[in-house]
Amino acid sequence: MKKLIVASTSTVHGSAYLEYILPTLAEFFNGVKSIVFIPYARPGGITYDEYTSIANKAFSKIDIKVKGVHEYENAKEAIREAEGIFTGGGNTFELINQVYKNDIFSDLKEVVENGTPYFGTSAGSNLCGVTMMNTNDMPIVYPPSFKTLEFIPFNINAHYLDPNPDSTHMGETRETRIKEYHVFNSISVLGLREGSWLEVTGDSIILRGPHTARLFQQNKEALELTSNKDIKEYF
Record's family (predicted)? Predict the structure, then answer.
């Protein structure tokens, strides 16, 4: 049975890396002593080792050790033998590119669908949707496919921002971009605000955190979904 935490962000304003969600992770990874970290998204171009060190520092606060998938001789075996898996944020294009390049796509899909607990933030959450097409990231590389793991039956728009009527910025809003997407695509998109996450257990998908989430569906008005409720009925 699937067991996932799909979070909009790793860090909320004014807190340390993963600090806001550590109590949830302590319960989610209960009994897990070590997790495999997928650092492929490498935010800001940092190295895999640097990124793994950041993740390890955060998880050490709940007595869980972190080892980067790149540190294993065989990445496929690392995924298959993992007690738990964490995929961090950064650039979604590069994340998906490396998942395909290192041939762990099918391994990830199989082990998580069979119960290995998975935690993703930002790009690592985009990986959980049907496709990666609603990322906010620049296309710095060209992955073999936009297809992702389909752990949830919709796409994520992480770090979702509402239009600010007082802003002088004249560029497109997130909502504008998602409407453009829906001219050509029918897959629903969930705008996850900072500090929100999805708790997935089997077919149940519960929105958690202090905010509502904004659901975009093709040819329909956007909806606000309430926190602490199962949102599976919308998909």
Answer: Belongs to the peptidase S51 family.
